[in-house]
Each structure stands twice: as C-alpha cells, then as structure tokens.
What we know:
Blueprint: H1 10-23, H2 61-77, E1 84-89, E2 92-98, H3 101-104, H4 111-123, E3 132-135, H5 141-150, E4 154-157, E5 162-165
Parallel strand pairs: 3-4
Antiparallel strand pairs: 1-2, 1-3, 4-5
Amino acid sequence: xxxxxxxxxxxxxxxxxxxxxxxxxxxxxxxxxxxxxxxxxxxxxxxxxxxxxxxxxxxxxxxxxxxxxxxxxxxxxxxxxxxxxxxxxxxxxxxxxxxxxxxxxxxxxxxxxxxxxxxxxxxxxxxxxxxxxxxxxxxxxxxxxxxxxxxxxxxxxxxxxxxxxxxxxxxx
Length: 172
C-alpha cells in the first residue's frame, strides 16, 4: 500500500490506517498513535495539532532504544525497510519515525532523517542541540551528517543503546 493509494480525506484515511493496523492483530500496541505520522507531509513551523508522543514509563536509554525498535517494527509492518529512530531531549522523546523510503519513494527518508523532520515539525526548528538520537541500527553517513547539522549530541543504536559518540561530518 502506498501513500498515493489512500483517499485524501483525513478521517477516511485514518480509518483505513487503523483498520489495516487492527488486521495485523494489534501486535504493535502503543504505536497506533504513530500511524497517522506516516501520512503527514512536511510543514513549516511547529505543528501543535500533531498528537503528542506517548512517553515510555521510565526515561532510560533502554526504554528509548525499545521505542526505536517499535518504530523499526512499524516500518516493517507497513512494507518499508526495517529501521526506526527516536530523538530524546531532556528525558523526553521529541521526535520519532519509522523508515519511509519505500512508502514515500524517497531515498533520503531513512528513519533517522524522518525523525529529524518530525522534530522540526513538532518543535518548529531544525536545531536540537544536545539531544540524543536512538536508532534501531547504527546511522549511515547521510543520517549521521543530518544528526550533525541538527546539533544531536550523541548517537545510540540497538536494544542495548550502544554507542553514545557525537555525530561526525565525514568528508566525501
């Protein structure tokens, strides 16, 4: 299913997305609220109408890493590449996203880049100096460069939230 196959009416589109989710047997409990994010376009400035991000019970690196894994599973269940990412600042998730490369026919729609776009829409700015990015896998050079330019302070990956180094801007 591609974004283009969904009706453009918001309520109908959300209903179809929820029905599709329920057909999967609810295996992705807690991520239903994230499904509408798959079909939102970019917007300038902060979008206060976006649903708030459900925060984990404990604000720990492993809990944030687990959310990145949930985003990875969401990407896989929607037919995209199995990657997910979340961005955390001051102990709260401020952006999250699954990979949308296939869904959007966009080679730059990696989970990390989509999470940065989510933060820009929610917060209304592109710089989140000092935030931590959690990914289901290590960031590729493109995503690491995006994290660098966004001011991300540390990159962590996997269930164990390994890593922690600041992103680098690699020379071509």
